[in-house]
Amino acid sequence: MNPTAPDSDVQVGAGRAKRIAMTLVKFAIPAAILAFLLWKITPEQWEQLTSQPKNYPLLAAALLVALAAMSLSFVRWCVLVRCQGIPLSMLEAFRLGAIGYLFSFVSAGSVGGDLFKAIFLARRSPGKRVEAVASVVVDRGSGLYGLVLIVCVALLVTAPHAEGEDAERLQSIGRISTGLLLVGSVVLAGLVLGGKPIDRMLKWLESLPGVGAVVARVAEPLRSFHAHPWGFLLSLVMSVGVQSMMAISMYLICRGMYSAEANPPTLVEHFVIVPVGMLASAIPIAPGGMGVLEAIIDWMYRVVPLVPTQASGTVVALVFEIVKIAMAVLGVLFYWTAGREIKRSLEAAEQEALAAEQASENDGEPAAE
């Protein structure tokens, strides 16, 4: 008999219990945030949400536009994956993208959608692990670039109705966004459009001790977009399209919830309000940006419109969150019908996330004397 077997069984059982508990927590966090947001709604806002007439065709159109935006983001990722020389059908991109969206929505960390997609591609294409990760990173960067671009243009061409500290905050957002846009443009131009001088600089960086190995592993996949500049440019155009459709979706929600008598913000004003809210909610401090988006949209509804509005930014953003939850249902359907290969990738992503968390915990523990 093996005297260590009971201890091993206990460890396996404890690990399984921990994974189950973490899964329950990841699904409970969005539910708790949603409940908190519902609790924060004032009686007047509840009155607006429940009793006032609603334009259901406009609300349905908002859902369709948001679905179109999500679908376009899946197409963008598929294009970037193919630029890395990794075969991926459009159907697979939609299936993986929907499942990834589901896991990003229910988790502020651990098994995010990006990690799952990268691991699946790496398992599918042995020897292209770095390329798989690069496709996901560049996809996220492309989306962020399109978002920052819209924020900069919107704040440049419009004059939000803000005074005092609100005006200073908007100006700070504009300056930060402009800085991010400039830095991103320089980096992207260098990696994608740069020629032999960029290659020589990367070769020099690869020879440096410490960082050389990292540069060698990361630079080559990113530089592969140099051979596909039009594919990369197309991804940026699609990113602008994705973020624009999100702004249109929230505008349709607002018009579906409020009549013209409430002076809802215009479509142009929503191109200022929504991108700023989406940029703030991109910070990974809450699952799917829930809570952050509502706070920013509510503030923007007060400071951006030239004509004061009776529409509640909190109510509109909450309905938008419900739209996002409805889109996440597609990920549930794809997950239920997923094949063995996808489920194995999910298990591998979970194991990598747990290993990273354990390593982080171990680093924080005091060393044994």
What's the count of strands? 0
Q: What order do the SSEs take from the amino end to the carboxyl end, as H and E? A: HHHHHHHHHHHHHH
Count of separate structural domains: 1
Identify low-pLDDT runs.
285-289
Q: What does this 3D model show about the protein?
A:
This protein is mainly α and 369 residues long. The chain has one domain. The protein is built from 14 helices and no strands. The protein is globular and about 65 Å long. Keywords: Cell membrane, Membrane, Transmembrane, Transmembrane helix. It is a multi-pass membrane protein.
What's this, in brief?
It is a multi-pass membrane protein. The chain has 369 residues and is mainly alpha-helical.
Present the secondary structure layout:
Layout: H1 5-40, H2 43-50, H3 56-83, H4 90-106, H5 113-124, H6 129-157, H7 164-193, H8 196-206, H9 212-223, H10 229-257, H11 267-281, H12 292-303, H13 313-336, H14 340-364
List keywords for this structure.
369 residues; mainly alpha; 14 helices; 0% strand; transmembrane helix; Flippase-like domain-containing protein
